[in-house]
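A brief tutorial aside. Many learners find it easier to grasp structure tokens once they have seen a single protein encoded end to end. The record that follows does exactly this for Purine nucleoside phosphorylase. Read the sequence first, then the structure, and try to relate runs of similar tokens to stretches of the chain.
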Amino acid sequence: MCTYDVIKQCADYLLDRTKHRPKIGIICGSGLGGLADQLTETDIFPYQDIPNFPVSTVTKFHAGRMVIGKLSGLEHTSTNRMSTSVSEIPVMCMQGRFHAYEGYPLWKCAMPVRVMKLMGVEKLLITYAAGGLNSKYNAGDIMIIKDHINLQGFAGNPPLQGINDERFGPRFPAMDNAYDRNLRLMAKTVASEMKLDNIIHEGTYIMLGGPSFETVAELKMLHIFGVDAVGMSTVQEVIVARHCNMKVCAFSLITNKCITEYETDDMVNVADVIGIANNRKADMQELVRRIAIAMNEN
Ligand SMILES: O=P(O)(O)O[C@H]1O[C@H](CO)[C@@H](O)[C@H]1O
Ligand SMILES: Nc1nc2[nH]cnc2c(=O)[nH]1
């Protein structure tokens, strides 16, 4: 486990080298790191330069940099959302995350969330690529997570394993409303304003260890569990964020339909995942940008 002091060292390293004091953190999923490139007045920290920080090994999809800067957009200055002004808010973006299949324990995958917390971040926006198991979902759709299934926790491998440090949060944190109700509502409103209603869903996410994609039998089982989207990340970040009382909003980009029939030659492959991420990244980035600005108001 990383001690409080080690996490604080990382946070202090970043705070000493940036003038920004972000209250919003963003974790960019596979192929979705472009949002960080839209920030201005950036301070950029390759993960390998941050003391005790993990490093990205899937660098083709995850640049492996912490980008701290200003995000600009229209801010609604009245409660009826009629009057707007241009605003700039400080955010910190992880341009790339860590996965269990890279060999990292779950607490280490989620350790950057605690670094964000000690830097003053209060709200976390998460994006990631996932397979659509719900038969109504198509490649290119977006799912707001309503709830997750912590399968690793079922198996005795939770991200909060080990001695609890109360300075982060309680030994037994609740996971009700893990995906903040108000933020979900706001996300749906913003998606409607962007005329994305036909591709937006709300559903249940499950994280599997990967890196192999699922078998048909596994997907049939997950369908019975009520899972709508399947991925290889996010759940540990959310649990660690909720443990330290951050508010969370998370979006899947559905990069492929999960294959639940044997009689087909279709196969999931990572090139399709990245291809769809590239096709949809402009919408996804705009959605996250607008939600971050709206989150700053609320
Ligand atoms: O969850 P993110 O980081 O977006 O990555 C997703 O994309 C990769 C390939 O499918 C897997 O790592 C999967 O979890
Ligand atoms: N586990 C898993 N992760 C994904 N990431 C993108 N697509 C998928 C998928 O079908 N399964």
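Self-check: The chain has a mean pLDDT of 92. If you spotted this yourself, you are ready for the next section.
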